[in-house]
Specification:
GO terms for molecular function: oxidoreductase activity. Pfam families: DAO. It comes from Rhizobium tubonense. This is FAD-dependent oxidoreductase. With 355 residues, this protein is α/β, with parallel strands linked by helices. It has 2 domains: 153 residues, FAD/NAD(P)-binding domain; 139 residues, D-Amino Acid Oxidase, subunit A, domain 2 (D-Amino Acid Oxidase, Chain A, domain 2), CATH 3.30.9. It has 8 helices and 18 strands. The strands form 3 sheets. Strands 3, 4, 5, 6, 12, 13, 14, 15 and 16 form a 9-stranded mixed β-sheet that branches. It has a 6-stranded mixed β-sheet with strand order 7-2-1-11-18-17. Helix 1 packs parallel to helix 8 and helix 2 packs across helix 8.
Length: 355
């Protein structure tokens, strides 16, 4: 029996995960990306916080169930591919503007069985002694992890190639080729590449390819800013998320801050925001030694207002599969598994609504 030939368009963390899962199952996978390396788009600008605590079971119970399963799939991936998780940092401490709001947030997650604890100021100060203004209480999520999404994407692509996939970069897919209502491959600037199925995992660019097939997925872009600061030594152990700051420390000691971004701001808005956040960091944390702002980038996350990703075959054209959504880093292992089950086993999950 011949192997199913599948092209995956996009090597962000979702596309990389799909390529990895397909290749491990024996599919003939070709990964294509117009960028020069995996994880160089919005994935490379993601904060990398794998968590439940930022989801809301009250506002969207079905989306929260999806997030619960996504965390389980992350644990599965960590077990089967431990080398991709070397050096990750574990645990987060989260607090709201008032203790009552923090308590409500912790209780909400606890009601779903999430391993989240409500801790007092003394416990917080013991865990993170560099905090200047220690909150009265916080939600402590010990199983959360901080990971570099770009590194994870590259590790998944390397593993996919080791399992038999091919990965080609600097190649822009301009259209999906079809015949008699079925996908037959893709067209690039210089070639036509044949395939039995095409997976479009191109983030906010998904509609560029699907619209030519008569399908508008309706993906929106949600901008965010990722800031990076240089410090001299490690002093934060966990992810810290308060009313003023969302911050973690990477393995190279740099501080990484995630914040929102307003469209239409000045061209150097990320740089300006980065310099302003120096004050917030100083108010919140006792930074040992010098701190210097090094980089600010804006990332455009693929987003849908209902809080769900889009995952499934296009009804308009047989053999075209779409995978896109936010939070892509958290969802990536789950989407990789579900896409593989759909493409190779014709199994479809009720966790994600049909296209």
């Amino acid at each position: 029996m011949s192997r199913k030939k599948i092209i995956v368009v996009g090597s962000g963390v979702v596309g990389a995960s799909i390529a990895y899962h397909l290749a491990r199952r024996g599919a003939e996978v070709q990964l294509l990306d117009e960028r020069q390396a995996p994880g160089c788009g919005v994935t490379g600008h993601a904060f990398g916080w794998i968590n439940l605590v930022n989801g809301s079971s009250t506002a969207n119970p079905a989306s929260y169930r999806l997030r619960l399963q996504a965390i389980e799939d992350f644990r599965r991936l960590e077990t089967e591919f431990p080398e991709a998780f070397e050096g990750v940092r574990c645990g987060s401490i989260v607090w709201e503007k008032t203790p009552a709001m923090t308590e409500a947030r912790a209780r909400e997650h606890q009601a779903w069985g999430a391993p989240i604890e409500l801790v007092d100021a003394a416990a917080i100060a013991l865990m993170e002694p560099s905090l200047r203004d220690v909150p009265d209480c916080a939600a402590f999520s010990p199983d959360d992890i901080a990971i570099d999404p770009g590194d994870l994407s590259r590790a998944l692509v390397r593993a996919a190639v080791s399992a038999g996939a091919t990965a080609n970069f600097g190649i822009k897919v301009t259209s999906v080729e079809t015949l008699n209502g079925r996908a037959t491959g893709v067209r690039t600037a210089g070639d036509i590449i044949d395939a039995d199925a095409v997976v479009i995992a191109a983030g906010t660019a998904v509609d560029t390819l699907t619209s030519a097939l008569g399908a508008n997925i309706g993906v929106e872009s949600s901008p965010c800013v990722l800031l990076r600061y240089q410090v001299e030594q490690p002093f934060i152990t966990r992810i810290l998320c308060g009313s003023e700051l969302e911050i973690r420390q990477a393995n190279d000691h740099s501080l990484i801050v995630a914040t929102s971004y307003v469209e239409g701001a000045e061209d150097d808005a990320a740089m300006a925001i980065g310099h302003r956040f120096l004050e917030a960091i100083g108010r919140s944390l006792a930074v040992p030694g010098e701190i210097a702002f090094r980089k600010g980038v804006v990332g455009y996350r693929p987003f849908f207002a209902d809080g769900f990703p889009r995952l499934g075959f296009l009804p308009q054209v047989e053999g075209v599969y779409v995978a896109v959504g936010h939070p892509g880093v958290i969802l990536a292992p789950l989407l990789g598994r579900l896409a593989t089950e759909a493409l190779l086993d014709d199994r479809h999950s009720s966790l994600v609504p049909d296209l």
